[in-house]
Records
---
Amino acid sequence: MRLFRSTALITSPFILALGLNACSADTTKPLEKTTEQAPIVKIVKDDKFTYANYDKVRMTHLSLNLDVNFEDKVLDGTATIDFKIIDDNAHTLHLDTKDLTIRSVQGLASSGEWSAMDYTLSDEDEILGTRLEIPFSKGMNKVRIDYKTSPTAEGLQWLSPEQTAGKEKPYLFSQAQALNARTMTPVQDTPAVRITYDATLRVPDGLLPLMSAEQSKKDKNGEYHFKMPQPIPSYLLAIAVGDIKFKAINDHIGVYAEQYILDASADEFSETPLMEASNAKLYGPYRWGRYDLIVLPPSFPFGGMENPRLSFMTPTLIAGDKSLTNVVAHELAHSWSGNLVTNSSWRDAWLNEGFTSYVENRVMEDLYGVERAVMEQVLGLEDVKRSIENASRPELTHLKLPTDLAHPDDAFTNVAYVKGQFFLQFLEQRFGRDNFDPFLKNYFNHFAFQSVTTEDFIKYLHDELHVKNPDALTSEELKAWVYGPGLPDTFITPISDAFTKVDAARTAWLDDGTVGDTSSWSTHEWLHFLNNFSETLSKEQLKKMNEDFNFNGHQNAEIAFAWYMQAIQGNYSKVDKELESFLMTVGRGKFIYRLYGALAGLNEDARTWAKEVYVKARPGYHPIAQRRIDAIFTKAEAKVEQ
Ligand code: BES
Ligand code: ZN
């Protein structure tokens, strides 16, 4: 079916054919504007991972005043919350908390007086935490909560001095996405709600605190002050405290890190200004003031996290040859896709991650050429194919995820990233870059500082692109991408000539043990080489492979990881020493979840060995990684017992 040409949204067969709820089109109309660009919009509550009644009462600002207490491993102080009433019949504010100790709640009356308020805490839910319900009186729009966090808060990792590179000072860093802002502060912890924030922090002498905000120097009382004037979703709240040094890259971009890795990080990320320029050329100016990166301790469980003004990065990116800097392009790209225009629930995570992967790849193409961009697409394709094959049910391979999504963790698979990216590439192919680039730029402007659903995007696509190019795609094609499983028929496989040569080299190596000249191979080519053996390699082959290419203990974490995966599949225990050292020092989930998963699923010996390593490594892992790997072993052990 060709798409209907009408612009009349509600009646458009384009929209009707997709079965979209027409009334949600009305719900994003701004009711009023706050001082910043955050429109207070009436929204239907669509996020099941929050207790917040944000459709009735909406938080607008958070003001934190906290001691960072390394002795007790707690943040301790007050959170003052400004809120607006959306529904006049509402009399209670519902906030998310998890593992917080609430000592008291006060409210600011219209007289200007603070007074103690009643509050209730619900029973604890393992995923959601505890609802904090505060009944407020008429005219009240500010509450202050006296609280402290738990030493085992999932969103905070407290490292002892021995766990840092410098060995002398402790370190703290947060990870709020997806559901962990509520372990740091009471908050309406949903990406549908945007808040401005400020913070006053007290930290022990000799430590530097940083946040996802504008920072000012220590004041005369020894306190640090932070301000985030642009409205952000709670999952972008972030804090890091440690013996952290700074090196500028240019006048508004720089790197924070422990001293041991500062210069190497600044070198590795020296092209960040070019990435910013490329991004801005394509999608409009960077809107957040400074852009800094912080290279965290190795237990950081992600490659990167797009905390505004201050991306958090894993040290495993510091490969020495800038081969892994697409992760910088990715986190920076979130300054448009994700931080400026945000998925309004985790069911729409592809709006953050798929858009960002697309933008990341466009920037890589712009700066380093089509060949590198296509290689990264093909590596992504290899990942997404595996995720699609392993999905526990087909709905989890849709871009729009099902209502019964069990946990936001299930939303951040390669489907959101790579299928999302390929969908935008598909739209780009169909509408042409000349149309698609300005469309996307306008999308970021149109929805700036708002949270949007997949359906909002589709309506915008319809109004801005489809009606002007009605023959470019059909609603069935669109539906297959967004509401259908796997990669649809209209997906065009990216082909890398460089990888075709690598394929030939792999075949030759399997046939006669030779590969030809690999001296010019990039990290990408080695990864493609390693990841595409159609059969499990024998121990002899693995031995020869390591003799030929020296993968064991490779300094590039991606290559080392790809090699260990092959070695585990071939039950090649000669790698155990290096693999153990990798697992003991690297906490990046992308690597360690799959390594433990492969070991736990291989055989009893491997599972026992992995468990022994895990018992030793676990105290150094981030609480998020601990939860994920605990689940991997529980599942593997349950399978054995069956
Ligand atoms: N926002 C994500 C990290 C994240 C996802 C944190 C889900 C918590 C829950 C970040 O932007 C990201 O996608 N990081 C990737 C890097 C990227 C190049 C694919 C990662 O960590 O590997
Ligand atoms: Zn991302």
---
Amino acid sequence: MERQPIIAANWKMNKTVKEAEEFMKKVAGRVPATERVQAILGSPALFLHSLVEEAEKNQIALAAQNCYHEDEGAFTGENSPKALHDLGVDYVIIGHSERREYFKETDEEINLKAKAIFRNQMLPIICCGESLEQYEAGETKEWVAEQVRKALEGLSEEEITQTVIAYEPIWAIGTGKTSSAEEANATIKEIRATIAQVASSEVADKVRILYGGSVKPANIKEFMAQSDIDGALVGGASLEADSYIALLEGAF
Ligand code: PGA
């Protein structure tokens, strides 16, 4: 099964509008064709509007880093999935470990967000991953499978097929430590097996599953060489234009 690779930048809470626009100017005309790799840029919601036109010209899909699970209403400070779609946003990253840890996002909420994202014609990038303690206790596979199962609950097979999953061991995020490519691949295979259980093996074969955690141009090829890793969700190494382009080029 040929799955289109994805490199998704996760800028987190970095840059100003001006810096984001400068980044776009630097990558303009250098993004590989979508037949080779789907470039995704997860920008703070504040800059999405100013990036949308250039992103489209360069075949970069824009991602928000979060949204609320209701379309509109009295939810002070939240970002509406309906408004994000209207802005031209294609993907929303949900369930990132930083959101689970610092903002107490639960599996139930992540599931509601996934539904809201589909309801508003966007696609979710659902993050999962274990802590260092869980990793050391050998609990990774069960933990991650449970996160995935709960996030996908109630979604149709068609929706699950279009979902992107990002497996990010928490101990590898921003630490410079990576899971070995083989170990990440083994966990990602388990995630695929979980998807086969909740949907079907045909669906599981089609779902793009990314690895995340200290991915950089120097190691992207190792991950891409694995049978079940379809790309990467990248924080630190996605902030500089040259590095982002190198990651995209390393994905095929
Ligand atoms: P990192 O972040 O590439 O800086 O480790 C990855 C992520 O948190 O998505």
